[in-house]
Amino acid sequence: MSEAARPDKNEKQRRVLTDFVKAEAKAIGFDLCRITRPDAIPQTPERLAAFLGAGYHGTMAWMAETQARRADPRVLWGDVRSIVLFGLNYGPETDPRAVLEKPDRAAISVYARNRDYHDIIKGRLKEIATRFAARSKQDVKVFVDTAPVMEKPLAAAAGLGWQGKHTNLVSRDFGSWLFLGSMFTTADLVADEPERDRCGSCHACLSSCPTDAFPAPYRIDARRCISYLTIEHKGVIDPVLRVRMGNRIYGCDDCLAACPWNKFAAAASEMKLKAREDLNEPAIADLLKLTDGEFRAFFSGSPVKRIGRDRFVRNVLIAAGNSGDRSLIAPCRALLEDAAPVVRAMAVWALSRLMAAQEFETLSLYREAETDEAVLDEWRQAGA
Fold this sequence. Notes:
Blueprint: H1 9-28, E1 32-36, H2 44-53, H3 61-65, H4 67-71, H5 73-76, E2 82-89, E3 107-108, H6 117-136, E4 140-143, H7 151-158, E5 162-163, E6 169-170, E7 178-185, H8 204-208, H9 226-232, H10 239-245, E8 248-250, H11 254-257, H12 284-288, H13 292-298, H14 308-323, H15 329-334, H16 341-354, H17 357-361, H18 364-369, H19 373-382
Parallel strand pairs: 3-8
Antiparallel strand pairs: 1-2, 2-7, 4-7, 5-6
Helix pairs in contact: 1-6, 14-16, 16-19
């Protein structure tokens, strides 16, 4: 065989390593694994700058602080040559919006009804990375969500799916229900083709948003998003948005659940995460009574634990206020003496909605004893 006809040794090695990492991903339980280049998202810096410039990130200052690294993987790690994207299906067995019709129950986002996915995916990625590094003799780094990595545009560039009008990744096989993780490596791997946008004229995700968080298709204003409000936002929540939150106490699945592509998620791997039964439709009355210790114990290993008891109970009080359920008056009233001002403030709001005006006026002793300005402002707005 002539030198020209002999297969390129480097090309063969690229394909061997590419096949190896994909086989490892499948063996450990990932539903999708595809590869892209670090320069595959050239439009991201401009789009990220526009997002931040409009203030759509709200109080998430870390997004602006890490803007350069977030916009370009090569700034995050100059030696990276290939980026491997992994997808894990977490599609629910039933429509998660059903709980919205049960005002005495709390709606927790599907992704948070099990162990913290960061820990699960990070553990799997580390196993793959260890074996891949030993096989390839190349450097690797793994990331899951919390690092300054634009996983969704990278996943789209790798062909896992496309970014839908709700800005989340949509897969032909799993709809909008995919956890993402990534492995950066100095190895030169065979890149996959990107997926094209298949949303067409559909706007189901946009019209499903209860707080109108989408100023335009493919753009999201986090300051109006219930996921942001219940998880990232500290302090009191805009009263106009509170009434639209319904019984959503941690995250929101409405735009994800509305996606027509979810009908294909039935083909999900049996290795996907299963929800904790006690987190599917917990009773609001029970959640209102959680002390800090009880909260930590109940949500041990759950991503919900990260927001802390006070912010969580704030969210539950908003759900109570929206419920119209007078049986919640007693646990809400008990929280007027809570140590956390944000809890007391939302207790005032919830009671103002659950109680008749004359009945609410009997709570004036709590108002007179209050010293926190934010809580006093709630009393004033309630007309007490």
